[in-house]
Amino acid sequence: MELFYSIQGEGMHTGKASFFIRLAGCDVGCHWCDVKESWDKNIHPVKEVQELVQEAKESGTNIVIVTGGEPTMYPLQALTKALAQEGMAVHLETSGAYTIDGNFDWICVSPKKTKQPIKESLQLADELKVVIYNKDDFNWAEKNAAGVTDKCKLFLQPEWSKSESMMPLITEYIKVNPQWRVSLQTHKYLNVR
After folding, report:
1. Three-class HEC string of the chain
2. Domain at 2-189: CATH code
3. In this structure, what is the dihedral angle of CA atoms 139, 8, 179, 167, given to the nearest 10 degrees?
4. What average pLDDT does the segment 84-113 reach?
5. Statement: residue 93 has pLDDT above 90
6. Domain residue spans of the chain
7. Is the pLDDT reported for residue 74 higher than 80?
8. pTM for the full predicted model
């Protein structure tokens, strides 16, 4: 769908310069998705792996984030191998609904209720980032946290339009459950993509 160089705004790697490869196509269908234009893969151009790698190299950063849409709807082995051969750290942002294909240095699983994550994806997660839209989402977060390994970092992130009402609840929740951390969409505060 798009390629861009920006600042990682969420989760464990917040604040790091990163090159984003946003793949089109998604059948997860979150009603609060802020990139709904990524859902239809047929309205976006197809690019060759080497073209993606070249653009990532030209950005000057060594972190590439493969995101979507839902990137794991596709085989990603060729892309991740080519990026790694150029010395880039390859991160993935996924809902975890599909098998993860490719080699990644960091995997962020952000599970969605509309298409639940599979066990294998949760087991591979370095980071679990759960969007909090309402009070029930804390139970959803714990359900998914039960499926990750001990190495996985746990984050609660308010859905952008509900930040004001959810942030106090997240703060109190984390004070009682300190294994969780706060993730904010800092790129929105910075007014960058």
Report:
1. CEEEEEECCCHHHCCCEEEEEECCCCCCCCCCCCCHHHCCHHHCCCCCHHHHHHHHHHHCCCEEEEECCCHHHCCCHHHHHHHHHCCCEEEEEECCCCCCCCCCCEEEECCECCECCCHHHHHHCCEEEEEECCCCHHHHHHHHHCCCCCCCEEEEEECHHHHHHHHHHHHHHHHHCCCEEECCCHHHHCCCC
2. 3.20.20.70
3. -60
4. 97
5. yes
6. 2-189
7. yes
8. 0.94
